[in-house]
Design brief:
The chain is of the alpha+beta class. About 30% of the residues lie in helices and about 25% in strands.
Length: about 400
């Protein structure tokens, strides 16, 4: 059984890494554990649990900046920001529902390490774009800092961009600083009923290219829409394409009118108010339709990033001969695909479709044996793979931190 270390502070994290180095052991890095099942299975001797590193250490609402220890629950940070009329604009999702684990366990450090972004990513950018600075312990057992409290503090190498999406394989972040932004006063969502994926992509593309300043665009086929906890959508029995508009009330009203006029050529339209809209986008953000059903955890789940113009072709190729269920976010640029259980979690189907349409795929949910046997994260070409290996060797030459989680041997 793997032993667990729960360091109470950043200094203890440094000591834990140094001890692992001296004893020739490897470490699994966790905090809330909501994303623990993503990546290749780890075989480490020790687990470093950062859940004790909690608390907001700096928050200046007027400066739009917040610093917190890496294990601070995301819900705690979002509650604090909401009390000051602010938010994390990249709208981070909670992987808990997908993994069948407790909802609300995500932490700010894990969110940034995985570069987790929600539906507003198409307007506000990814988590890495709001990541200002951090303190971390490298795989060499050395504490280092990067960035600061404002974007202009970033000089030389922008290590925040490197850490975002590294999944704890380069360093153990102990403190992080992020940019905050004002929370919209209100929001509404326009629903377009009955479109197929190709028609929905056309509608979402038109909306995103308009002056309506749409902050989120998603398409849910009928079988997925039927699982939503919203009666006016689930009970309609048809596919739904959703477009969100946010901001000050007068602006939202004017842009809603423009959007309705633009979208009426596509199909029947409906509108949901702010309270229902928030429920809808939280459901889409956390991909809850693929977690709520009894078979959800058993079905492999893929996260596919593709050019918007290729999303419909990608979906058609995946759907051939399968009972795949899909959800389209980011105006079609992000496709969540739940596939039939199989020995390779549908990897051959996914790989073939991606090769034909472009983009990359990440296996988000599958049995450990399958995750150990296939590529979970996108495979790099020879040049990029060599660069990735050199970066890993620079930060963690003895492969102490989450070894092999992203790629075998890295």
């Amino acid at each position: 059984m793997t032993a667990t270390i729960r360091p109470p502070d950043a200094k203890a994290v440094e000591e834990a890494v140094q001890q692992a180095l001296s004893e020739g052991k490897s470490l699994e890095i966790v905090a809330g554990g909501s994303k623990r099942g993503v990546g290749r299975p780890l075989q480490t001797e020790l687990t470093v649990d950062l859940s004790g590193l909690t608390g907001v250490t700096l928050y200046e609402p007027e400066e739009l900046v917040l610093s917190a220890r890496a294990g601070t629950p995301l819900t705690e940070i979002e509650s604090l920001l909401a009390s000051h009329g602010q938010q994390l604009a990249f709208e981070p999702m909670d992987y808990g529902p997908l993994a069948g684990s407790i909802v609300g366990n995500a932490t700010i450090g894990g969110t940034l390490a995985a570069n987790v972004s929600g539906s507003r990513r198409i307007k506000a950018g990814a988590a890495r774009d709001h990541f200002l600075g951090f303190t971390a312990v490298s795989g060499r057992g050395e504490t280092f800092k990067s960035g600061g409290r404002v974007v202009k503090n970033v000089t030389g190498y922008d290590l925040c961009k490197l850490m975002a999406g590294s999944w704890g394989t380069l360093a153990v972040m102990t403190d992080v600083t992020v940019k905050t932004l004002p929370r919209p006063e209100t929001e509404i969502t326009i629903l377009i009923r009955g479109l197929d994926p190709r028609q929905a992509i056309a509608a979402m593309t038109a909306a995103m290219g308009s002056d309506c300043d749409v902050s989120a665009a998603a398409h849910l086929p009928a079988d997925v829409a039927g699982c939503l906890p919203i009666d006016e959508i689930a009970g309609a029995g048809s596919a739904v394409t959703a477009l969100r508009v946010e901001g000050f009330s007068p602006s939202v009203g004017q842009r809603k009118t423009m959007l309705l006029a633009l979208m009426k050529a596509f199909s029947e339209l409906a509108e949901i108010d702010a309270s229902v809209s928030r429920v809808l986008w939280q459901t889409i953000r956390d991909v809850k339709p693929f977690a709520a059903r009894s078979h959800g955890v058993e079905r492999p789940l893929w996260r596919l990033s593709t050019p918007t113009t290729s999303a419909a072709d990608l979906a058609e190729r995946i759907a051939e001969g399968t009972s795949a269920e899909m959800l389209f976010d980011w105006a079609g640029g992000l496709v969540w695909a739940s596939l039939d259980p199989s020995d390779d979690a549908g990897a051959r189907i996914i790989s073939s479709a991606i090769a034909a349409t472009g983009g990359h795929a990440t296996l988000v949910r599958a049995a450990p044996g399958i995750r150990a046997a296939i590529d979970v994260f996108p495979r790099h070409d020879a040049g990029l793979a060599a660069l990735t290996k050199r970066v890993k060797e620079s930060f963690d030459p003895r492969r102490v931190l989450n070894p092999g989680r992203m790629w075998a041997g890295v």
